[in-house]
Every structure is written in structure tokens, then in C-alpha cells.
Amino acid sequence: MLLATQLERVFILKDKGQDIKLTDPEPRWSVEAVMNFYANIYPILTTAKISAPQIKDDAVEYKFESVMGTKG
């Protein structure tokens, strides 16, 4: 018998060379809503982009990547 389970979402913010793992505040929210939620704590997220999701360690991992300070 097949058993379907929903994978946990994990959000990774790379700030000053460190990966910061952010938990999912509300599973029903879109990824953009989660990014806006954490933008109050991490202002760099206001200009970040969201990478394509990757499955890692039985979780769906989204990376918030800052575009601040990059050229081209």
C-alpha cells in the first residue's frame, strides 16, 4: 500500500556567508507570503528572490537569495 505524506517546508536565508534556517510559520501560506512575513525580521528579504524548491532530508527546501549588491 502506498502512503502519501506532505513534506515539511524549510526556508534558507543566506546572510553574511551563513545559512539561516527558517521554519514554516503557516503551511497554508504561499512561499511569497512566508518571505514577506520574515521580511520584518530580515529586511534583506524585501529585495530577495526565491530559488526553485529542492527536496532534501524529507523536506522541501526553498532558498531566499539576496540580489542586493550584485551587478549584471
Task: Please provide a written account of the structure.
The protein is mainly β and 72 residues long. The protein contains one helix and five strands; from the N terminus they run ββαβββ. Strands 1, 2, 3, 4 and 5 form a five-stranded mixed beta sheet that branches. A hairpin with a 2-residue loop joins strand 4 and strand 5. The N and C termini lie far apart (51 Å). The model has no long low-confidence stretch (mean pLDDT 88).
What would you say about this model in short?
The chain has 72 residues and is mainly beta. Helices cover 11% and strands 38% of the residues.
Per-chain topology:
Layout: E1 8-15, E2 18-22, H1 31-38, E3 48-50, E4 54-56, E5 59-66
Parallel strand pairs: 1-5
Antiparallel strand pairs: 1-2, 3-5, 4-5
* Biggest sheet record: 5 strands, mixed
- Helix and strand sequence: EEHEEE
- Specify the overall morphology: elongated
Overall average residue pLDDT: 88
| Number of E-state strands | 5
Keywords:
72 residues, mainly beta, 5 strands, 38% strand, PRTRC system protein C, PRTRC_protein-C, Prok_Ub
